[in-house]
Amino acid sequence: MQNRKIIFFDIDGTLYNSNKQVPAAAKDAVHQLKEQGHIVAIATGRGPFMYTKLREELGIETYISYNGQYIVFEREVIYSNPIDNQTLENLSAKAHGNNHPVAFCDEKDLRVSTKDHQHVKAGIGSLKLDFDVSEDQAYFKDNDIYQALLFCTAAEEEDYISHYDDVYFLRWHEFCTDVIPSGGSKAEGIKRLLDIMNINIKDAYAFGDGPNDVEMLDLIENSVAMGNAVEEAKAVSKYQTGHVDENGLYEGLKKTGLI
């Protein structure tokens, strides 16, 4: 058997195809990796409660959620970095004044300020969650929030960017952008995890496709951009594979020699 490796997979557009399902070939590939003794991990912008069934289905116990703000190693939380409460208070007030809904995400739930807004329906709907989202404008007051979602257009987002120094905005949908603590990313989360696990970064692999994967793919030498990836992700990756809907993940693992 080759030396033990750790492989980080993004979820949407990487493990999940366009129908938010794991292709059979990808599922088989993950099981092959585990049978060979490798560590399979997730690095995603989603909260852990959004992919519980996926982790159970694939037997994954190590994961980086909320773009590096909530890290679990073998079911144990090893790092958490919530957004400052005053920042959330200010952001919520400003967004409310602009009729822009805000969602507050902790490790166990997602609550949105205005559930029936058309931008919320479009943004949250695209995630194809298997539960109903609840409405709560003050959820941040009594819970640690690791990531917020601001529902507005890219043009409207500009007005927010200049107001906050301790968070940054990362757009993933026409009507929605992530709000993340400054300095946080999947790449930083991977550094923390590898340090705790005492794994050399040269023994790490990463697969991704989105804007929030670029830093991770740039950090990891053995990086693979999906065929459906944004150009920025492809530009920093060592390998490029096929589209997620065309067994791209399986093909990418073959290219790297992992399976």
UniProtKB/TrEMBL annotation:
One Pfam family linked to the record: Hydrolase_3
Highest taxon of the lineage: Bacteria
PROSITE patterns (alphabetical): COF_1
Coiled-coil positions: none
NCBIfam families listed in its UniProt record: Cof-subfamily, HAD-SF-IIB
The protein, known as: Cof subfamily protein (Haloacid dehalogenase superfamily)
Source organism: Jeotgalicoccus aerolatus
